[in-house]
Prior knowledge:
Mean pLDDT: 79
Strand content: 5-15%
Radius of gyration: 22 Å
Number of helices: 15
CATH superfamily of the largest domain: Farnesyl Diphosphate Synthase
Strand order of the largest sheet: 1-2-3-4
Order of helices and strands: EEEEEEHHHEEHHHHHHHHHHHH
Structural class: alpha+beta
CATH topology of the largest domain: Farnesyl Diphosphate Synthase
Number of domains: 2
Largest sheet: 4 strands, antiparallel
Amino acid sequence: xxxxxxxxxxxxxxxxxxxxxxxxxxxxxxxxxxxxxxxxxxxxxxxxxxxxxxxxxxxxxxxxxxxxxxxxxxxxxxxxxxxxxxxxxxxxxxxxxxxxxxxxxxxxxxxxxxxxxxxxxxxxxxxxxxxxxxxxxxxxxxxxxxxxxxxxxxxxxxxxxxxxxxxxxxxxxxxxxxxxxxxxxxxxxxxxxxxxxxxxxxxxxxxxxxxxxxxxxxxxxxxxxxxxxxxxxxxxxxxxxxxxxxxxxxxxxxxxxxxxxxxxxxxxxxxxxxxxxxxxxxxxxxxxxxxxxxxxxxxxxxxxxxxxxxxxxxxxxxxxxxxxxxxxxxxxxxxxxxxxxxxxxxxxxxxxxxxxxxxxxxxxxxxxxxxxxxxxxxxxxxxxxxxxxxxxxxxxxxxxxxxxxxxxx
Length: 409
């Protein structure tokens, strides 16, 4: 079993304390990794780390966990909670996810004009509905009462994908022809607009013991939807005034992370959660969303189109800001940067030198840098969970932070 030790434990000697430490993984006496001053939960001089940090496993001498299961152990001053595995978590929430799919299907089949969308929503990871259901469980709310919220946010996400495919001129989505390839651009645009409006209608219909909170939810989701549109527009029309990395994260914050924040905070608002609780889950969703988009961008470079159900290399072909390419320009060797610039000047499609670029990114350690950036946002997501009551569902959100952002499922 892998172990770790605290290099500078400072005053933290009691199990349950949270503090900043330098952590060093060891195999025998040989140091392998040093992670400076991250926020780790500690138990005496042992370390408990969610398995989402692949280089450090959960340290639990009494009950070791195999590397094949995503789980975590959370220590606080009030106790210890060990989460279930990802597989168990998904199985537990699958009935609610299926009810959400069934609800969306019934919604779309109700009108002849929208029936074409049924197949469009049969696929997908349903991450946003899953976050809604787990966040609802934290408050003691029954996930089944959040079906309309989950369906509404999934419709909003679906609308953004329809518009994305039109803008990117993508021919496939989730292993099927893109909607605009089936019905034409005009009809696809109108269907996407309809899904946005219908998503807000479903939010209005949600049952809550605090009906006065519905207006707050609608205002917040409307704000996030606007951020999503502005993020997409910013990606299409980059200002060039910001540092490229700063501009990239500004885009990601709007186009992806905003909807993740809605999925995790809306259930708490509807249940009457405190300002600090709502802010904690909003922050958690924000950073999970950013880490998710980093993964998605990497997969657009190195992923398998069959597995992903969509073509790869679209963002590269469109000249979009991508974190691996930003880091290649910033941290790559002079020879690597020259080689990349040579590729860009090559006549023809970028698909001709796509494989060569991926090899260059790996040789220069750029993908490792990107992974480190992704880890930072997952760590910030987990740190936000420290601010809410420790429970089985809190630990489940820690597992979901890894599930949503691992590079391959």
